Amino acid sequence: MIFKDERKTVAKTMRRLYKQRLTTSSGGNVSMRNSDGYVFITASQTDKSCIKWQEIIVFDPKGKNLTPELKPSMEFAMHQDIYKTRTDIFAIVHAHPVFASTFAVTDIQPVASMTGEARFVLGEIAMVDYKLMGTKDLAKACASSLKNAETAIMKNHGAICIGNSLFQAFDRMEVLEFTCQMYFNTLLLKNCKMLKENELKRIDDLK
Predict the structure, then answer these.
(1) How far is residue 112 from each of residues 2, 115, 120, 127, 170, measured CA to CA in Å?
(2) Tens digit of pLDDT for each residue in 152-187?
(3) How far apart are CA 160 and CA 30, in angstroms?
(4) Where are the domains of the chain?
């Protein structure tokens, strides 16, 4: 089984992340899961700016690497744990966008209640406690934080978004970075008008 279409979609999303300046050529990882339980994820030590579909690893539903010539991302355990915890989602995007990562190294938590779009796309932004990258501890922390959220800031690391599709997960990452930049600007201006609770409820009800 080659799964060319799925692997091309993952590679395209990774290249798009780099093109939109949401990560570096060596940073971040993207995965998707199909309806049969196969997982497709970017390989380690690849140039994410021009990654090809042949550099996307295929895991079977039991976690066996069907592309042993490729080295799995060090964060594969994180993706695995999230998929196990959130059986309703089919895509994960992890990246290091500048403004989201800026909040990751502060004690300030960005909020998505400034605009209707941010609230609708992101919901509540979760915060993941710092754990060493590539460890089981980080995998567990991310999975736990995303039990009731679709977007999270990983302290002293970056950001992670999940979705029903790669487009939805990518869109959340892009909106998260835009929202973090906007919130950063309000801190400089020392003025931010948040939406009221009744307005947030009306937005949440649209879902």
Answers:
(1) 40, 7, 9, 13, 17
(2) 999 999 999 999 999 999 999 999 999 999 999 999
(3) 10
(4) 4-205
Q: What are the tokens at 90?
A: 């089919």
| 112-152 confidence digits (pLDDT tens) | 999 999 999 999 999 999 999 999 999 999 999 999 999 99
Amino acid at 130: Y
Tally the residues of the chain.
207
Q: CA–CA separation, 12 vs 10, rounded Å?
A: 5
Tens of pLDDT, residues 189-203: 999 999 999 999 999
What is the per-residue pLDDT across 25-49, written as a single tens digit (0 to 9) for each?
A: 999 999 999 999 999 999 998 999 9
The single residue listed with the structure tokens 């940073």 is 27
CATH class of 4-205: alpha beta
Asked if 186 and 197 touch (Cβ cutoff 8 Å), the reply is no
| Tokens encoding 79 | 């993706």
Two tokens at 15? 């290249």
Could you tell me which of 29, 185, 155 has the C-alpha nearest to residue 92? 29
23 in Cβ contact with 51 (< 8 Å): no
Cα distance between residue 109 and residue 58, in whole Å: 35
Neighbours of 167 (CB within 10 A): 14
Helix (H, G, I), strand (E, B) or coil at 78: helix
